[in-house]
Description:
Blueprint: H1 2-11, E1 35-40, E2 46-55, H2 70-73, H3 77-95, E3 98-107, H4 115-130, E4 134-141, H5 146-153, E5 156-157, E6 159-160, E7 163-164, E8 168-170, E9 175-183, H6 192-204, E10 207-208, H7 219-222, E11 234-238
Parallel strand pairs: 3-4, 10-11
Antiparallel strand pairs: 1-2, 1-11, 2-3, 4-9, 5-9, 6-7, 8-9
Amino acid sequence: xxxxxxxxxxxEGALRASQLTADGxxxxxxxxxxxxxxxxxxxxxxxxxxxxxxxxxxxKFENLNVSHTKMAACPECGIKLRSAxxxxxxxxxxxxxxxxxxxxxxxxxxxxxxxxxxxLALGVWAWGRLLGGAMxxxxxxxxxxxxxxxxxxxxxxxxxxxxxxxxxFEPKYNCDIQILRFESDSYSDRFAxxxxxxxxxxxxxxxxxxxxxxxxxxxxxxAGVHFPHPEPAFAGLAN
Length: 239
């Protein structure tokens, strides 16, 4: 997964090769704290991935990755961003939903534009349902139409007093970023059958975990956790 992210990031100019590990991985410190939804191709190679970082319900804005973005550092836009995110966090707390940050959505060249690419994105909504409800914050690039695709599914730009918070340029990745919000039970009706199917599929998916601590976030899956080598298909959550 990290090698796929690293290769694509360098090819697209989002990162320099010198920013990767010696073996070409985009090794983010957030990875070990997150769940990862992977799509596997022939031979078990990772063809697509997305990262989902679950926060405790009582967490603060400063604990979110979005608080470290270029927009958050802007004196004017940063106040609007914080206010919008904190409003959503309060709503999630009232509803008993988890707060999840979504990022690292990367697809191999041959996976782009395919139904599997859309299924991978919809897996985030399905996974949120398995958490018992989730309010998500996604940092999506405009490169390769990632923000547009998530918007078609059900992602919406953040709002501050009726004003849409615009996209911004993120120097760290050399691209425009749109911060989107979504709710696990809110998506376009046309995708409902796929989300239902993905929810059932994730319950049966292979879960690979470096430690048992992350399993507590998925009570619907935890009882069936197993560790075989994944087959070359859509398979699983990793932590």
